[in-house]
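Hi C.,

You asked whether I'd gotten around to modeling the 276-residue construct. I have! Everything is below, sequence then structure, no commentary in between.
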Amino acid sequence: MDYRKQLVVEPGSRARLERVDPRFPVINHDKSEIEELTERNRARIADLQLRIYAERRHSVLIVLQGLDAAGKDGVVKHILSAMNPMSCTITSFKVPTPEEAAHDFLWRVHKVAPARGWFSIFNRSHYESVLVERVHKLVPKKVWSKRYDLINTFEQGLHRNGTTVIKLFLHMSKDEQLRRFKDRLDDPEKRWKISEADYAERAYWDDYTKAYEEALSKTSVKRAPWYMVPADRKPVRNFLASQIIADTLDELKISRPKPSVDLAEIRKKYHEAQAS
């Protein structure tokens, strides 16, 4: 089943987060079944990555956005770890450095866009400039409101250069976020993730909802649509993210390249080497 049709933010439509249930009860398989399906998608993604690397005509950018504890790191760990690091980079965008802040907001992003044959994964991304900077009024409205068009132009340029852009918003409920914060308190292995800022940011939940809805509405386009991935149930989140990625890559119709050498001649050399 192609879940993309249910989860896509249709270009030209108004995104409403309430439209998608973060628990996504449509999927009612048990955990082991869901994990088996995810594993199949991991294998598909790994195979398609190899084909893209061998062909060297396409590249892929995967954008992961979501509030704290939505599972961006989890998607990287459980799904994208299937990829060969030989042709894959992961960039986590933090607060801009002084050098980055001295340039336009897309400068640091363009530097790590994927080359042909490569995958780039953004854990947070250029969209922070119309989310965090908007919510906390780090720049005036006249600045961030113009960035939607700049983002669309940037991604259009990537598309024209052969880059497939896959954008996933991990949609988590406020109650589930608090439950995960409690898990961090209770689990010594997760306490390093605890931050006072996480709790401070909860006070801006409605502001972030509004910012996300506008960002998704204005930047979901045919060549680079947004998908709202229900994230309250981790196995479901991982399955849906892997399914969207695998199905999108399948549509590139990439076959394994033909050998660039005469195989008969190479076999002859092999047998000669074996006999010597």
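If it helps when you're writing up: The mean pLDDT is 95.

Thanks,
B.
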